[in-house]
């Protein structure tokens, strides 16, 4: 009997597909049933070949060997996942496998994952494509009931392959050129470099900013406060003597209401989440990094199956999803969402005008709950927080607008104008989905005049001027980026692009990177030591500032991504040839390398220590990581690094604050700001005694090591040694 092979992108997804398809028999890298065999990749199993696989001379990083322009470009099996590739290839060539279903993630990269595997394995048989937006049993069954010929997605594959080859040609060549030219571990790329340029430009604007002092004049009347304004409506007075004279002249005078305007305003609910908006809100509310949010979202999608596909850039759903909304509302009618969800469920018809827009749905619709019954107790704390954000936004967008009455007053005091404003809630509408801590509604239009509760007033009413106060202030520099605001800047990088057409293309294609890649780009800036975190703020290092100036000008601007994405979109639509685009990228890479070679700029390590590298002897660099400090060898080929100190999740037994782990080897010690000190060996004994044995300690240290940056982490090395000694 012939069978159909199903190729998933990850083992977790493969297991769920196998369960729905009745595949229960375990095999080498697969699960098999009567009709189907389900196998999986481990993300990518195949990648573009490394430079040395084309030419042995390219194994050595040398300016003389650049540019590297292999033609044609080849692929290679990733060594770490070669065993799974061999298992997939064996299944593809099994005698009873007559058909293949591609069930990798429904998007550009998911298509590339599958097609490269099939090309490398030599599959020539009939192939179909499953395209779904959630991992519920129903979605999987419907996906298999509506399979499409894989050939319909050929252009999407060509677009993905063109993007990958272009990034190889430009990224590897420029990275090697910068590293060899300046004898430092430097890298550049079409998304990474303009993103870094955003951060560097903002820091330069902050450093060049010169604050100006000003005063605002406020008067206290009967039950409310009013603010002085000049003829242009400005509240700030930059002449202190003028401000004091004005306050003195108006003291003890009478205020009269010249105009009183009441306007009824409606604020529609915010659109449903796409990944970038979700990452923004998670960073603002919970300080989660974009990477952490994506990871938790992926778990809610794959493991819990309670949310739809995360890597989406759409904030709407299509009309064909509307019939499923009642079930989705019912699925979230638990705990604190129950009453609101059931009240929405009773509406006939459902309010969907702010959720449905076929024209704004791309490959996947917005992130919304699935029909799967939720079990909140199974979620981790972080997963619970992300789920809460999505559910509240989903319920909010199904509610009517928030309605309030805005009141604006204009008063006159001895010929001078004062204003005040207030707001009275009429119908909370979608605000009912949130508690009082929600703060995104109606950002302050004027920081010099706050909204307030106003008494009942009428035009012509007079008041004696009570307290008069001059409030000093200073103009503020631009704010440093947080991950939330950086994600916004990456999504809308128009300030970097002067050309209107390129700016329009950037907006249409979603800006710098994609929702799926922005988190990795930000993480790479940290791991390359181009930026560091100070609280929630992202600050460029000296290395980051220098690399932006050393990189070719084209790479510093988001305009390059605008042009690329426009053409990659045309390839996906069959309007442009992949080969033509890639050939241009070869020429472009050659041009960029020539530009780096011809530069007379220089690079300086200003974080160099006097500690020699134990492997190569060069002086180590002191760098700040997301969790502490490290010493790193500047020689790319050496790659030595070790942790100096790192913030851990270990809590001080005295004050319960997080402790730092300092030192190396047997001398490693936990230290707290309160003065508490504890050797790592003593910490292990204490954890074993309190937590029930070595397994608990091993689990704890494994978790801690995973949170440390890759490299010769002192904790990771100590963990490996300890686990080896205590392996049962």
TrEMBL record:
Record-listed Mg(2+) binding positions: 9, 105
- Name the protein family: Belongs to the type IA topoisomerase family.
Tell me which Gene3D superfamilies the record gives: 3.40.50.140, Topoisomerase I, domain 2, Topoisomerase I, domain 3, Topoisomerase I, domain 4
Basic and acidic residues bias locations: 685-709
Chain segments carrying region Disordered: 685-713
- What positions does the domain Topo IA-type catalytic occupy? 153-593
Checking PANTHER family in the record gives: DNA TOPOISOMERASE 3-ALPHA, PROKARYOTIC DNA TOPOISOMERASE
If you read the UniProt record, what top EC class would you report for this enzyme, in one word? isomerase
Q: What is its EC number?
A: 5.6.2.1
Asked if the Swiss-Prot or TrEMBL record annotates the protein with the keyword Phosphoprotein, the reply is: no
Name the coenzymes or cofactors required: Mg(2+)
Q: Which residues form the active site?
A: 309 (o-(5'-phospho-dna)-tyrosine intermediate)
Keywords tagged on the record: DNA-binding, Isomerase, Magnesium, Metal-binding, Topoisomerase
Q: The organism sits in which domain of life? A: Bacteria
For this protein, the record's HAMAP family field holds: Topoisom_3_prok (MF_00953)
Its recorded name reads DNA topoisomerase 3
Q: Where is this region: Interaction with DNA?
A: 187-192
Known role:
Releases the supercoiling and torsional tension of DNA, which is introduced during the DNA replication and transcription, by transiently cleaving and rejoining one strand of the DNA duplex. Introduces a single-strand break via transesterification at a target site in duplex DNA. The scissile phosphodiester is attacked by the catalytic tyrosine of the enzyme, resulting in the formation of a DNA-(5'-phosphotyrosyl)-enzyme intermediate and the expulsion of a 3'-OH DNA strand. The free DNA strand then undergoes passage around the unbroken strand, thus removing DNA supercoils.
Reactions listed under catalytic activity: ATP-independent breakage of single-stranded DNA, followed by passage and rejoining
- Name the site position(s) for Interaction with DNA: 61, 168, 176, 311
Q: Which residues form the Toprim domain?
A: 3-136
């Amino acid at each position: 009997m012939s069978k159909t092979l199903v190729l998933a992108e990850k083992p977790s997804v493969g297991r769920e597909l196998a369960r729905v398809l009745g595949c229960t028999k375990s095999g080498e890298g697969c699960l098999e049933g009567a009709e189907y065999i389900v196998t999986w990749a481990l993300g990518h199993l195949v990648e573009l070949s490394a430079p040395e696989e084309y030419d042995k001379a390219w194994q050595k990083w040398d300016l003389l060997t650049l540019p590297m322009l292999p033609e044609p470009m080849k692929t290679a099996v990733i060594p770490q996942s070669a065993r799974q590739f061999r298992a997939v290839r064996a299944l593809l060539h099994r005698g009873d496998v007559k058909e293949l279903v591609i069930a990798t993630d429904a998007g550009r990269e998911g298509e590339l994952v599958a097609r490269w595997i099939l090309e490398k394995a030599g599959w020539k048989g009939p192939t179909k494509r499953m395209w779904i937006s959630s991992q519920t049993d129903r979605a999987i069954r419907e996906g298999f009931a509506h399979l499409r010929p894989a050939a319909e997605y050929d252009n999407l594959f060509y677009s993905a392959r063109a993007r990958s080859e272009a990034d190889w040609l430009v990224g590897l060549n420029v990275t090697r050129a910068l590293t060899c030219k300046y004898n430092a571990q430097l890298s550049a790329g079409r998304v990474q470099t303009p993103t870094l340029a955003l951060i560097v430009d903002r820091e330069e604007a902050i450093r060049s900013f010169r604050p100006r002092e000003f005063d605002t004049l406020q008067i206290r009347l009967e039950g409310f406060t009013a603010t002085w304004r000049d003829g242009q409506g400005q509240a700030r007075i930059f002449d202190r003597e003028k401000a004091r004279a004005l306050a003195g002249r108006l003291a003890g005078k009478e205020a009269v209401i010249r105009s009183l305007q009441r306007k009824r305003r409606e604020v529609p609910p915010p659109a449903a989440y796409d990944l970038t908006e979700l990452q923004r809100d998670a960073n603002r509310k919970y300080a989660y990094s974009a990477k952490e949010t994506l990871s938790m979202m992926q778990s809610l999608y794959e493991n819990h199956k309670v949310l739809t596909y995360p890597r989406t850039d759409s904030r709407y759903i299509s009309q064909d999803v509307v019939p499923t909304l009642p079930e989705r509302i019912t699925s979230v009618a638990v705990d604190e969402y129950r009453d609101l969800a059931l009240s929405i469920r009773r509406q006939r018809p459902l309010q969907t005008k702010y959720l449905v827009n076929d024209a704004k749905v791309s490959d996947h619709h917005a992130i919304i709950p699935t029909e799967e019954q939720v079990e909140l107790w199974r979620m981790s704390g972080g997963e619970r927080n992300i789920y809460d954000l999505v559910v509240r936004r989903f319920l909010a967008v199904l509610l009517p607008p928030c309605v309030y009455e805005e009141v604006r007053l204009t008063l006159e005091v001895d010929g001078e104008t004062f204003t005040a404003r207030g707001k009275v809630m009429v119908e909370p509408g979608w605000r009912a989905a949130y508690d009082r801590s929600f703060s995104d509604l109606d950002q302050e239009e004027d920081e010099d005049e706050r909204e307030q509760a106003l008494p009942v007033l009428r035009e012509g009413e007079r008041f004696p001027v009570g307290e008069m106060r001059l409030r000093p202030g200073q103009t503020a520099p631009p704010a440093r980026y947080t991950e939330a605001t950086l994600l916004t800047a990456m999504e809308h990088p128009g300030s970097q692009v002067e050309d209107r057409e390129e700016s329009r293309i950037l907006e249409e294609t979603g800006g710098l990177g994609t929702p799926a890649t922005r988190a990795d780009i930000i993480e790479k800036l940290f791991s390359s030591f181009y930026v560091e975190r100070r609280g929630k703020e992202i600050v460029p290092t000296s290395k980051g500032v220098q690399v932006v100036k050393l990189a070719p000008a084209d790479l510093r601007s988001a305009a390059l991504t605008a042009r690329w994405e426009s053409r990659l979109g045309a390839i996906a639509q069959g309007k442009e040839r992949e080969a033509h685009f890639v050939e241009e990228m070869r020429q472009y890479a050659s041009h960029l390398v020539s530009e780096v070679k011809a530069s007379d700029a220089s690079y300086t390590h200003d974080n160099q220590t006097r500690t020699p590298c134990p492997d190569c002897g060069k002086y180590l660099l002191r760098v700040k990581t997301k969790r502490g400090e490290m010493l790193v060898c500047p020689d790319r080929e050496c790659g030595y690094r070790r942790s100096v100190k790192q913030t851990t999740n270990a809590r001080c037994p005295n004050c319960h604050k997080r402790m730092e782990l300092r030192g190396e080897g047997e001398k490693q010690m936990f230290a707290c700001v309160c003065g508490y000190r504890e050797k790592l060996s003593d910490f292990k004994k204490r954890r074993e005694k309190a937590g029930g044995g070595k397994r608990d300690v091993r689990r704890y240290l494994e978790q801690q090591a995973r949170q440390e940056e890759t490299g010769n982490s002192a904790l990771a090395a100590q963990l490996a040694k300890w686990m080896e000694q205590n392996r049962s």
